[in-house]
Write a structure and sequence with these properties.
Distance between the termini: 71 Å
Largest sheet: none
Radius of gyration: 28 Å
Structural class: mainly alpha
Number of helices: 2
Number of strands: 0
Oligomer: single chain
Strand content: under 5%
Length: 72
């Protein structure tokens, strides 16, 4: 295999083979990127919602009840 690749022109090794790989595996690569981006988006939404929940709970428990300091 190494001897075969050495006998090929540079443009076949560096342009032709990667283009063929993208054509063959393009759908797989696109779906993997889509899964990673979707997961990253869900993680960011989760972090924002947990932060908002903590903020709301701290606001209501830190004297928001007229200074009485209600215990939930």
């Amino acid at each position: 295999m190494e001897k075969l690749l050495k006998s090929l022109p540079w443009w076949v090794k560096w342009i032709g083979i990667p283009v063929i790989a993208l054509v063959v595996f393009g759908g797989l690569i696109a779906s993997l990127i889509s899964i990673v981006v979707g997961l990253l988006f869900k993680v960011i939404v989760f972090v924002v919602l947990v932060g908002a929940l903590v903020l709301v709970v701290k606001r209501f428990t830190s004297g928001g009840g007229g200074g009485r300091g209600r215990d939930w």
